Amino acid sequence: MSDNALVDIVRELLGEDAAKIISILLEKEETSDDELIQKTGMKINNLRRILYQLFDKNFVLYRREKDREIGWYKYYWRINPTGINILINSIRKKVLAKLKDRLNYEMNNMFFACPDHQKNRYTFEEAMELNFQCPHCGKRLDNIRNDEIVTILKIKISEIEKRLKMQNL
Ligand SMILES: [Zn+2]
Prior knowledge:
Blueprint: H1 3-14, H2 16-25, E1 31-32, H3 33-40, H4 44-56, E2 60-66, E3 73-79, H5 81-107, E4 111-114, E5 117-123, H6 124-129, E6 142-144, H7 147-168
Antiparallel strand pairs: 1-3, 2-3, 4-5, 4-6
Helix pairs in contact: 1-2, 5-7
Bound molecules: zinc ion (ZN).
Zinc ion is lined by residues 114, 116-117, 134, 136-137, 139.
């Protein structure tokens, strides 16, 4: 998965600020609190809250170090590759299940369409209800093949299965 795709997933799950933090953390091995404040312009409390959410979801790890001069702990954050792989795999599994459902649907149905309105596809039952007449123009609905869709679905399914197998090694 590309860095951009990861940032998009984090944005969807935890919002824009979390996505911003992840994209900064992807730039190098480790980033301190101070640097994150500087680069995001966030307030410390807000930043900590979001880092905690990211930590809670296993997207990030931290290390802390006592600053001898000021006596406080400094936190250094980094991406957690294991947690991210688990997330990516669970997303892939969901996508795979959906693709398999769709493939089943495509393989177990006959489809019909009007030669002039090919965007609208009807199953046999739907076409029967319409008396095999296009609801837009009244032309006869033809039986259409879906080999192309089936082929594409099969390719996508095998790609995802291959990736999942590679991750489990
Ligand atoms: Zn039509």
